[in-house]
Each structure stands twice: as structure tokens, then as C-alpha cells.
Amino acid sequence: RNGADIIDGKAFASALRAKVAAGVARLTAEHGITPGLAVVLVGEDPASQVYVRNKGVQTREAGMASFEHKLPAETSEADLLALIERLNADPDVHGILVQLPLPAHMDADAVINAIDPAKDVDGFHISNAGLLATGQKAMVPCTPLGCLMLLRDRLGDLAGLNAVVVGRSNIVGKPMAQLLLGDSCTVTIAHSRTKDLAGLCRGADILVAAVGRPRMIRGDWIRPGATVIDVGINRIEEDGKTRLVGDVDFEGAAAVAGAITPVPGGVGPMTIACLLANTLTACCRANGWPEPD
Ligand code: NDP
Question: Which of this chain's residues are annotated to bind NADP(+) (predicted)?
């Protein structure tokens, strides 16, 4: 029997999108300005195509302008950089997102760092990573920002809690750890070379899994009552069907945890909602208007 409360990321994200839409409507009414998000997709990666389509739909639903740039896989890095330069200079574009992964012939770091940091709504530019790490006003990566919102909503003040983040990627694990540190958690970052991962996880009041390995984190790794945030999105074949599962063994963990995010319907929907929130924030900052809270 499930002991844990299920954290409803889908509902939380829907409320956040409604709040962003209200903020957008206010800007449009008061200033005649529509926040705009440009999304750049290079190549035909099927998962990326789905993400980009969903981003476009939700951007428009929030009342913002969506500019989609789809480039062939063989586009040169120079041509992509030229497009980013145009978007940096375009006053109708307040946010720029380059969908990752990029084709292998491109230097993803160079491309991301070519985005104007003020328009870097993914928060991956080195300036934003540095601002976040030093506790300054940054654009914060969307997935970890969504996780932080769910944690604050569930737990209130996070100060003093033991947080274990499994995964150290630049897009999830590292910024997640920075955000938790910013909220005064005691943070441990685990990765593929970590010793006794199970024992480490058992000490966590907050466990964030961002690994990319289906159901790797078992129920008996969870501290009773812990809050478990499962970032993983893994497509597996099971009983002749394709299923989406997280990095956490949901059934096992839900029997022990105090609260847990499901997959799908947990962290996933928060990512695009936070992208929209970041775009609204970028638009307000660009114009010197007060930021939405
Ligand atoms: P990466 O592959 O970039 O990073 C995975 C991390 O997990 C690495 O730091 C790696 O360690 C670590 N790791 C791998 N195997 C193990 C292991 N056996 N034990 C401990 N640590 C391990 O993935 P991302 O951070 O980009 O994504 C993680 C997951 O989150 C994926 O399932 C992805 O699909 C999902 N995701 C979901 C999003 C959403 O909800 N919207 C957005 C982004 C990602 P090392 O560094 O040592 O190799």
C-alpha cells in the first residue's frame, strides 16, 4: 500500500502556467508588450521535436509569442551562431532556447554561451551558472527550478534538511544542488563514481534523482518519511508496451517515503511551466519592470 503523498506536478504546473498567463495579460494590457520566446531546433531528434512542439503550444496558450526556428541537422555552427546573434538583437524576442542535444559537429558550450545571458531562459549560459553559484540574480534552469518549487510547496522552509542529489549534469544535478544550498540544505551530490549510493540516499530528507536509469533507486534506499523528487524520464518496454518510468522504483519508494513525484505527472510538466515563467521574468527585466513573484 502506498504510504507516500503523491506530489501533483501536473496540477502545480497548470496553476503556474495560469499565473504566468495572467502576468502576460497584464503586460500586454498595460504596456502593449507581448513577451516572446524563440526556440531553436537543429535536426530531427524525435524526443526533441515533441518537446519543441509542446513548448510552442504552451507558449501561445500563455499569451506569449512563439518563434520556432527549425534547422536541418547539417546546419553549420556558424549559421546557428548567426541566427542566435539575430535573436539576441531582436526586441520582440525576450527568451531564447536552443534545444539540446545539438548535432555532434557543433560545440554546444560555444552555442549556449553565444546567447545573450539576459535572454537565456534555460539558464545554461556560464554567466547564469556563475550568478546562481554565487547567490546572485540569475536565470535559473527550468527543471531544477520546478523541483525547488515543488519542494518548497511541500516542505516550506528547507533549511537544515539533508538533501542528496543523484546526478551532476549541468542542466539538472549541479543547478539543483546550488538551489538547495541556496535554501540552506546540507547538500550531497552523488554520481556514477559515488561509493555506497544506497547508504548515502538513506540519509536524505530530500532525495532528487536525475540519473537517466530506469527505477535504479530502490524503496529500501529511501529514508522513511523522505521527500522524493524523480526527475528521470525513461522509456522502457514492459509487458509488450512502451512505458515512461522514472529513476526511482515508484512502488517501492512510495511505500516508505513521505511524499514522491510520479512519472509522468511530476517534475516533467514543471519544466515548461518554469520556462514560461522565466520568459516573463526576462521580459520584465529587459524593460525594467517589477518581476512577477
Ligand atoms: P545526464 O546523462 O547528463 O546525467 C546523468 C547523471 O547521472 C550523471 O551525473 C551520471 O554520473 C549519473 N549517473 C549515471 N549512472 C549512475 C549510477 N549508476 N549511479 C549514480 N549516478 C549515476 O542526464 P540529465 O541530468 O540530463 O538527465 C537525467 C534524467 O532526467 C534523464 O532521465 C532525463 O531524461 C531526465 N530529464 C528530465 C527533464 C524533465 O523532467 N523535464 C529535463 C531534463 C532531464 P557521471 O557524471 O559520473 O557520469
Answer: 167-169, 233
